From TrEMBL:
GO terms for molecular function: hydrolase activity. The keyword Cell cycle does not apply. InterPro entries: Isochorismatase-like_dom, Isochorismatase-like_hydrls, Isochorismatase-like_sf. Residues 42-224 form the Isochorismatase-like domain. The keyword Hydrolase applies. This is Nicotinamidase-related amidase. Keywords: Hydrolase. It comes from the Bacteria.
């Protein structure tokens, strides 16, 4: 069953609709068609670590003073949808893989960061890059530390996916314009079908979130609503 089959029934507006004009809508069919998922998907949960949520839900301007990596309210809004996605994947026997930042990993050495932003080194603790409790990995699931934005760069993710014989990847996590986009691009370049679950990815910058979702839909991925993905997983399991 393909993502195209399921998503074709959806008529809801995507989050980027308020940004585009009639000209963009006119050219969209030439680029934005659905490629579809395969029969052996894996769920890739990108960087759902504590520092992007902080220790409580609060306005971004307040949260970012204590947690410079936070995505604030958009991160907290994605928790419940992501829990549903992860639960469905686990029930269906779909492999679930996780990534987190590797800046504390001595293997990679100093100065290897996922972005060029300024970072206070005294804020980078083990807690920051541990997975958020509500979205944490099970003991049987793999957590892959990554030194750059892409989950594929300098990691064993490709080998893991080969071992699993995965033919497609469902993506959730953060940030839409950074690690999500970089990972989606690399997944596509490596020949995987890619689905980005709209309600389960987030960014601190609303404009970047919307534009990058649109651009991924136009080029590299199927951007799908959660209930369509859950329907795909349920039918695949049957």
């Amino acid at each position: 069953m393909s993502a195209q089959t399921i998503a074709s029934g959806s008529r809801r507006p995507h989050v980027w609709e308020d940004l585009i004009n009639d000209e963009i809508r006119e050219i969209s069919p030439y680029y934005g068609g659905f490629a579809g998922l395969g029969e052996r998907p894996a769920l890739l949960c990108i960087d759902n670590y504590n520092a992007v949520f902080g220790d409580r839900a609060e306005p971004l301007k307040d949260a970012i003073k204590r947690f410079p990596s936070t995505c604030g309210p958009s991160a907290w809004a994605a928790i419940e949808p992501t829990k549903k996605l992860m639960a469905a994947a686990r029930t269906a026997g779909i492999p679930v893989l996780h990534t987190t930042r590797a800046e504390l990993e001595p293997t990679f050495g100093p100065g290897i960061y996922s972005t060029k932003r300024e970072r206070p080194r005294n804020n980078e603790t083990e807690w920051n890059y541990s997975l958020f409790s509500q979205l944490a990995a099970l003991d049987t699931e793999v957590v892959i530390p990554k030194p750059r934005a892409s989950a594929f760069f300098g990691t064993a993710l490709g080998a893991r996916l080969t071992q699993l014989r995965a033919d497609s990847i469902i993506v959730c996590g953060n940030s839409t314009s950074g690690c999500i986009r970089a990972s989606v691009s690399d997944a596509f370049m490596n020949g995987y079908g890619v689905c980005v679950v709209e309600e389960c990815v987030f960014d601190r910058n609303t404009l970047s979130h919307k534009v990058n979702l649109l651009d991924m839909q136009m080029k590299y991925a199927d951007v799908m609503f959660l209930d369509d993905v859950l329907a795909y997983i349920e039918k695949l399991a049957r």
